[in-house]
Specification:
The complex is a heterodimer of chains A (242) and B (305). Chain A contains nine helices and ten strands. Chain A has helices at 45-52, 74-80, 96-106, 111-125, 140-151, 170-185, 197-200, 220-226, 232-241, and strands at 5-16, 19-30, 34-39, 60-65, 68-69, 81-85, 158-162, 189-193, 205-210, 213-218. In chain A, 37% of the residues lie in helices and 27% in strands. The longest helix of chain A has 16 residues, at 170-185. In chain A, strand 1 and strand 2 form a beta hairpin. Chain A is of the alpha/beta class and 242 residues long. In chain A, helix 3 (96-106) runs parallel beside helix 5. By secondary structure, chain B is of the alpha/beta class. Chain B folds into two domains: 3-221, Rossmann fold (3-Layer(aba) Sandwich), CATH 3.40.50.300; 225-304, 2-Layer Sandwich (Alpha-Beta Plaits), CATH 3.30.70.100. In chain B, strand 4 (58-63) and strand 5 (66-67) form a beta hairpin. In chain B, helix 3 packs parallel to helix 5. The chains are: A alpha/beta (242), B alpha/beta (305). Chain A binds chain B through residues 34, 39-42, 86, 139-141, 163, 166-172, 174, 178, 181, 184-185, 195-198, 201-204, 219-221, 233, 236-237, 240-241, and chain B through 37-40, 137-139, 161, 164-172, 193-196, 238, 241-242, 254-258, 297, 300-301, 304-305.
Amino acid sequence: MENEFSVKVQELTRTFGDFVAVDHISFQVYKGEIFGFLGANGAGKTTTIKMLCGLLMPTSGTAYVSDFDIYKQTEEIKQNIGYMSQKFSLYEDLTVEENLEFYGGIYGLNNHELKIACSQAVHSTGLGDHLHKLTRDIPLGWKQRLALSCAIMHQPKILFLDEPTGGVDPISRRNFWSLIYDLADGGTTVFVTTHYMDEAEYCNRLSIMHDGKIIAIGSPRELKQSYQKESIEDVFIDLVKK
Amino acid sequence: MTFDIKIVGLKKSFGSILAIDDLHLDVHEGEMLGLIGPDGAGKTTTLRMLSGLLIADEGVCLVGGKNVRSELSAVRQFIGYMPQRFSLYPDLTVAENLRFFADLFQVNKEERENRMKRLLEFNRLSPFSNRRTAALSGGMKQKLALSCTLIHTPKILLLDEPTTGVDPVSRREFWDILKELRASGVTILVTTPYMDEAAKCNRVAFIHNGKILLVTEPEKIAHHYKNTVLEIVCDQNVKAAKILIASKQFDSVHSFGDRVHLSSHQTSEQMKPMIKNLVEIENIQINSMKEISASIEDVFVELLN
């Protein structure tokens, strides 16, 4: 039987000296789900993401990403995930097209695959008019779409988005989230961190992390109901301030 | 002297790009006005001209009744400007950074320690006064930057996206501090890409292509939206949104995770049966469907489309 989970985490822990950054967390993310991973600065989100992406060894506990073991199969994990952060990591002196080709090349696509992936990226994001412009000359909202396109050139099963929309205006954010919905609809699992609680409402399910522990998990509606709050922001502040 | 801002017919080009195009805006004394607009609309350029860092091609900026162009040194006495990337010295402690800015603004020594103590308490940074700035969290850095901006007790504050990248707890705390500043009589002009922050201002101004399109109070925002907005919740929201978009019967359809918002020039009585027909034929069950008032974001999106 096929596993219904994309990410499966059990008692995952990571310490740095005496400091417990991630403290026995357990959760699952379903295939094709948009999962919001929330927490204040310093809660342990980035440490968790690094472990799930195969960049940092856990101290204890288990985790499987797309059925690969995060202790032993870090290379397989890297080939099956996409990652995009708020810093975008785009080459400003390359054109939009060159950035796409560069990332496709890194992911080991051959020329034929690269062509298909580029035209798909152009089709889904509407980057066509900007292909030959230098990346530094395109507006922030377009850079964000380009960064997303680069992260999915190899059609990853799971996409990690680390604060993808910081400082981007509402229209660009809406467009960005429509792209995310299309990806999830096509079966990609999306794992996203954000500081903006209106965006948290876009997720199918959310977890809230505080001091290395997951202190709440559920759909936005469930969380608002069980804590009797009007918004996810109020739920978050109530839980984290305690 | 009235601590307000008056911008009349402001224009600024960079090469062939017209960044600010005949912009007019009034900020009243003691109010908090949120300047919102898409990336590249001219928000930062406007603030830079108000603070005298950039010279306008045409038009006048009056800050506290004084012309920024001809009386800049007087204006600098009573304005505080916090740019997007505030230059704090990472190797200095919190207190040392404050002292440095106090010296820059020629705050005298007796006054200085008093003010620093008050600001550190006000911004809840006292326990960290000896911490190196590099070791502060994002939220704490923004509070320190604000403290440095306040060291010469400005009467008018210009803040450029002060909370980008800051977590929700620190963000709410930052806005509580702004509210207290406003209560103490400070005039605040703040830019933000976040509509929930705009809602905390007493007025918002929409800027697009270097022009102000609308100035209004957040409570009255719905009056500026002619369409009906419906919120529906069904068992498959994303699929429902797709079907509703494909039907081309509505002006906009947007899925927000556990609900879908539709906007249309039709009445809700006209919309409801159409929606029901469209989604139920695809075996999607509607749990609720109600008319809601338009948000700042709805107006923002409509103004720009």
